[in-house]
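Please produce the structure of this protein holding heme C.
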Amino acid sequence: MGLRLAIALGVCTAMMGHFGLACYAADIPTPPKASAYAPAADLVKAVDDYISRIGETLESQDDFAEFQARVVKDAETIAVLALVLGLHDEKNPYQAAAPALIKAARELSAAAAKDYASAKTAFAALEAAKSSSGDASTLKWEKVASLKELMQQVPLVNSRLKRNMRRFERQADAIAVDAAVIAAISQASMANLDETNQPNQAEKWFTFCADSRDAAAAINKAAKAKNQADAEKALAAMTKSCDDCHAVFHPEAIGKTDVE
Ligand code: HEC
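Below is the modeled complex.
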């Protein structure tokens, strides 16, 4: 065992020497253009929807008390959507605001976990951040949200998406938006490898994130093309991609892909 450890450490040290990184740290693979999996217009709509839902919740202290956990999740989700919009290949109204939006969304998440007054103040700052102008070229793929919060959000988004599937024609736009959100979360989660139970399995993690992203992207495209059969197929593939990843990284969540 002593020898094995010494060898393992030797490999680690050699790699650190080569790459200047901890032994399992791995670079996030270059993603496809964001327009290929999450059209900017859909993400902008989603940001606006999450912001207005938080705004409504914060109108009353009772609602806040009831939906506090949702405010935290929504704020974390906004941070991810803003990052993808900042790095997006399509010009969009939140591109320049993205750095400030990410910061304000993170602050809102922390404030909402505390109390109503802090959440109100942080929410006003998030509203103001929407029209700020910063430099999106400073952004890179890095962790802007907690994996745990994101993983509590995706089954909710997925459940609404599935519900809307039953009224496909009428809800195609809403389906496209929710699919784009899941695609954006899947892509952004690549940066959360360190929060998993196996941070040394970078290749697998990145592959599962990409599979989930691409399956969600296919739902988005099918919804836009008003092709229900393709959307159903892509939804099945996405649900499978959730559980393929859980089988390796979080068996406790297998089968918990929606809340119905
Ligand atoms: C790339 C891997 C991966 C993919 C893809 C993935 N998950 Fe997860 N999921 C995880 C990990 C890791 C956790 C544990 C997170 C934690 O607790 O820190 C998790 C946790 C969960 C949980 C439990 C959350 C809780 O703590 O209450 C649910 C529910 C869940 N995921 C749903 C989904 C759904 C729905 C999808 C597909 C739309 C999905 N996941 C896609 C890796 C993944």
